[in-house]
Amino acid sequence: MQVEVKVKNPYKVFINEGLNLNFKGKVAILTNPKIAGLHLKNLLEKIECEELFIISVKDGEEYKNLSTIEEILNQMCNSKLDRKSLLISFGGGVISDMGGFAASIYQRGIKFINIPTTLLACVDAAVGGKTGVNNHFGKNLIGTFYQPKAVYCESAFLRTLGQRELSAGLAEFIKMAIIFDANLLDFIEKIDAKNFLKAQCEDEIFIKIIAKSVELKAKIVSKDEKESGVRMLLNYGHTFAHIIENETHYKSYLHGEAVAIGMNMANHLSYELGLLSEEECERIKNLLQKFALPTYYKIENIHEFYQAFFLDKKSANHKIRFILPAPLGKGIIKEDVPKSILLKSLEHFI
Amino acid sequence: MQVEVKVKNPYKVFINEGLNLNFKGKVAILTNPKIAGLHLKNLLEKIECEELFIISVKDGEEYKNLSTIEEILNQMCNSKLDRKSLLISFGGGVISDMGGFAASIYQRGIKFINIPTTLLACVDAAVGGKTGVNNHFGKNLIGTFYQPKAVYCESAFLRTLGQRELSAGLAEFIKMAIIFDANLLDFIEKIDAKNFLKAQCEDEIFIKIIAKSVELKAKIVSKDEKESGVRMLLNYGHTFAHIIENETHYKSYLHGEAVAIGMNMANHLSYELGLLSEEECERIKNLLQKFALPTYYKIENIHEFYQAFFLDKKSANHKIRFILPAPLGKGIIKEDVPKSILLKSLEHFI
């Protein structure tokens, strides 16, 4: 199936539609050693172009930084890519974030395509044109809005994923359900967790998860490409998650795992504000735990944790913005949370 | 006077209109130690805002690289700038290129304003939204198209410039004359070089130079913001200049000086192709020399020099594109130059 993302330069997300690329000009594939070993042979059979280059960078969120970007740009220069060349990001969210960013600043911008190989990248990172890297101040603080020319999701790639990666991807789908569509929660609760976490569920399950996420995300991004309004809702759980990821130097949690904890934190805040019932909080916590996702993180220094909110990209003019479920199935942007209530909700995590 | 640049988000260039900024939110001024010492006091008297930060980075094209960008971004993070904050680039072309780039990738893009303090930045770098940095492969290979919200040119700043900086700025104006308007050549030839090079010419001379350049550039950029066509003409002299700057590690020549040599090289090529007469070549060479600009560079390795053309951003699909005057007052894009003729024209410089 195909989903169109109606931004200024519209593009399509192809889900299990097969992949055949014929490109006039040079192509560079950005990937990492693990993905390359598993799936590159398969991908190469489906690409025809004038000249091909493979750029392989270290795996993991802790390497999503400016120095890896410099390495990628140097390899692009060394391959003499020009403004008509194409970059393909072939990997998970880390690869698509960095590939999009590198493409957006190489010679002031060249074309790129995303071929996500993780569930998280399929349901979230590869679609919507947010690119970027982390620095020691925080997550994704450096980057651009830069849309791909196309995205190709293939469920076959997901069959080699480990349990943690599948859980992490599902976390972003649970996020979508909580802020946009409570019916999806029923669907998720019915998924056989054991099969799913071994990547042994039916293809239909993967396809429904990807298709629903992409449809919802495409709708939001089409309305608000540069996150000045409704797109902020997609940040549910992320305000907390980014701080956790930064405090743990991007080494302890996969992004989706941190988002799972972040959603539980946001729910506690929502509860303290009277926007969510205790039962609703429990329901989500149980759902996350059913899919082997963490829901707890020990905050060492509550003052530092609080200060870090001000570096969140949604914050402006000394105001912190939270995305909260109110109730399940509907996300709202809340910017007047009293400090005392925020701290009280964080005290569950000290 | 005011000139509008009619890009997607239009903005104005104010020339000697005075400067008074009142900004709700945080402001960071990016500058260098020399400019700050000369002019910052003056600027600060004209800015009101919620919170102010000064970021001062090393002076010179050889520091226009990703590591200085990282330093700037770290200082922006440390100052907790948010998406509603403003960055002001206060300096020459190096500062406006880097400030624009940093603004374009900080939190996926914040507002910026250019206040150029060199003639070159007034007539060229500060207007048009090209941002970027160099790497060891070449000049401006990394960057974005990202337009400022406004540009303020004040001739008062130019009074402290040294001779080389004034000459370098004039080189870009001579470029404009050669590709767009031969009448301007008559005007330039009549300028009293001695006074001009001591920054002792009348204000009217500065204003005419800036106004004419900005008008011409605004027209071109409005037609072709992202350089897919006519904007390439502004690269006259630059195809050669960028290689010279890179070979000399951005240390020997100011950008405008390298452009002067590059124009002379382009003219030699134009002559070899029968597009320019010997007299026209001589006329420009004399004009450049009248304003103390270099016109000769010794090419050490003609093969390496030739190979470097392929990393020029205008090159694509193995074709080098040259901007050539044909004749004076009219620039053309030429992409089928035989290698033998190109090498013959370069032999004047070995």
From TrEMBL, chains A, B:
Record text on cofactor binding: Binds 1 divalent metal cation per subunit. Can use either Co(2+) or Zn(2+).
Pathway(s) annotated for this protein in UniProt: Metabolic intermediate biosynthesis; chorismate biosynthesis; chorismate from D-erythrose 4-phosphate and phosphoenolpyruvate: step 2/7
Chief location: cytoplasm
Record-linked Gene3D superfamilies: 3.40.50.1970, Dehydroquinate synthase-like - alpha domain
Cofactor: Zn(2+); Co(2+); NAD(+)
EC id: 4.2.3.4
Coiled-coil zones: none
Domain 3-dehydroquinate synthase C-terminal: from-to ranges: 169-315
InterPro entries documented for this protein: Dehydroquinate_synthase, DHQ_synth_AroB, DHQ_synth_fam, DHQS/DOIS_N, DHQS_C
GO molecular function, one term: nucleotide binding
Pfam families referenced in this protein's UniProt entry, alphabetically: DHQ_synthase, DHQS_C
List of residues binding NAD(+): 59-64, 93-97, 117-118, 130, 139, 157-160
CC terms in the record's Gene Ontology section: cytoplasm
Location(s) in or outside the cell: Cytoplasm
Catalytic reaction(s) noted: 7-phospho-2-dehydro-3-deoxy-D-arabino-heptonate = 3-dehydroquinate + phosphate
Protein family according to the UniProt entry: Belongs to the sugar phosphate cyclases superfamily. Dehydroquinate synthase family.
Job of this protein: Catalyzes the conversion of 3-deoxy-D-arabino-heptulosonate 7-phosphate (DAHP) to dehydroquinate (DHQ).
Protein name: 3-dehydroquinate synthase
Organism listed in the record: Campylobacter vulpis
